[in-house]
Amino acid sequence: MGFVFSAILYITLAVFVIGTLRKILRYASTPAPLKIPTTPAPTTRSGVVMRLGREVVFFESLFKASKWTWVFGWLFHAGLLLVLLCHLRYFTEPVWWWVALLAPFSPYAGLMMLFGLAGLLARRFLVDRVRYISAPSDFLMLLFLMAIAGSGLAMRYWLHADIIQVKRFALDLLSFDFGYLAFNPVLALHLLLVAVLLLIFPFSKLLHAPGLFFSPSRNQVDNPRERRHVAAWAKSHDTDRAEKSRG
Amino acid sequence: MAKPPEFEIADLGDYVYTPPVMPDSMAHSQPYVANETHQQAIGFPGELIDNWQEVAVEKLGELTKKYRGLQVYLDSCVKCGACTDKCHYFLGTGDPKNMPVARQDLLRKVYRRYYTLPGKYFPKLVGAEDLTEDVLDEWYKYYHQCSQCRRCSVYCPYGIDTAEVSMAAREIMDTVGKGQKYCNEIIGKVHKIGNNLGLPEKALANTLEGLEEDVLEDDGVPVKFPLDVKGADVLLVTPSADFFAEPHIDGLIGYAKVFHQAGLSWTVSSHASEAANFGLFIGSYDNMQKMALRIREAALELGVKRIVFGECGHAWRVGYSFLNTLAGPFDFLDANYPVPQHIIEVTHELLEQGRIKLDPEANDDKRVTFHDSCNVARASRMGSQAGGQFVLPRNVIKAACNHFFDMRSDTIGEATFCCGGGGGLLTDDLIELRTKGALPRMQALKEVNEQHQITHMAAICAICKSQFAKVLPYYGFEMDQIISVHQLVGDALVMDTEH
User: Which domain covers residue B62, as residue numbers?
Assistant: First the structure.
């Protein structure tokens, strides 16, 4: 199972990294030809950093919009972050001190994820407006993430995986070795689902993660009267016309 | 009074109420399609072209490469539902395609089908669809049920702005020959004559002359309404509705009195006799820039030092946010003033400096509330502080009248509701949509009215003023309860008759 999963994870990780980088490059290289921050907007660069920071950390806009979605969404994402950080203990030797400090909270973080996801899923079924806008993939995505969190928790409380072996496997992955992994159905499911998640990330709505940082309504400085903001594609006729109207 | 409408008007409840989803309840609503003349005058094919499907898909791809916003917005939506109860057209109609995310999805499903892997191979799974004639019809209907007010973009966790999506959709439709008559005819008039109304120079001169006589008669003050005066300090660019429509015209009189009393020399230009820029509504950079350049040309021609915009919502968006980019640099103007300035900024500054005085008792017969216009609120600014667009107009109103009361906090400021007629929808063929879309604002007005016996709602947007004058009666208010902020200013201004 070690060889197969090493191969799967390398391939899906490559797709994830290359696919997401390609998207990010695309976002970064596509011009935003006009200033369109949703106002009131910060008038300085540092103000924009703060605005984006509040969006990333507190989900500020979502908080204004819907407290239920905010609670469930925030719990899920905060849980996910904690769980990811706790997983670093499989990839570090010796384990970084702050990762060790977080480790005891890992199961609670997993439960936070599950609780948040269940709430979001309930909204998709129960709120007629949200049901209307949901495609099959929107339900599947939530179930999928629940399965990842659930299989992780299952290994903690029920069908234990050999943690020592998993860690060796993980460290081997980092040094491009194909390590050994004894067959464990829950672990296999967990790793497979993660691999699929990596695979679909660059092609799905999971792109909201990098997307936020490139959203002109959130990342632009409100200074259009002080500074012109001419996109490359608008430049040629810009100078043409400006010259003509000057003459 | 208004004729009884052919559609049902909801009772104004006690609060803004989210309706249940009622599919297709507005599927019959669509504006007149532009004819060949209107289309060709602004650079688009006269009728639906044969290979429209192919061209539309290609144009969509082109736009995602030209506008980062569009690309990010089409990719990023997670269907969280935060926006679903934020659009006034959804709140007023219950049609689920008027939920911002569903409106975006009309375009997004086509984007997914042609430009993403899952959409190409698993269209059903991710809600991707071919661009068919039915889809085009849906686009035409529902992208003309969006007033591009950006309220949804405030609440979206990624700032997805449906206005950008609906502008892109309209540009695609224009490109394949299915444009909207109202917007495209008007843009043609601006290119040809200089304003939305098609008011030629002579008519404009007569109107302004008439206004001078009216003000002299009413107030005994020789307030001038100058046209094409070379060497004036200020070029006033104002929506052409200000020249003749009620209640707009009283706002224009207000600006003129302010200029007169402050001793500022100013002029209107017959070449740039329009602040509105409907190029924004159809998402056409070219048309928007062409109209913006008329303002630059007029400023150069007349040799003015400053550009000031009159009360108009989206015009102020284009003025504040885009003018410098589209038609700048304005290095030939006086660098001591921002370009352009809003008339509210001018009046506010003059008040602060004590160069004009207002006597609020002159408006003691009025109890006033203020409608934040969507494009001013969420797409521009006034003054140097973020949020000045909310503070400055209120300061001016409070200086001009003693009885001012705000509507509920979640219906003003950045959360303000569109009047229901913005974004190129202020046309009689959409009157049902306009009336229903005004519902949330009317509910808030009713509430403040019950608490504070409001007599007037002031606004700083030509579209808001026209829209409210039309729809207020449907909800049991009087059409003349909507007024210009500068009408309040004009009436309260202490005039120096010796001037």
Answer: 36-179
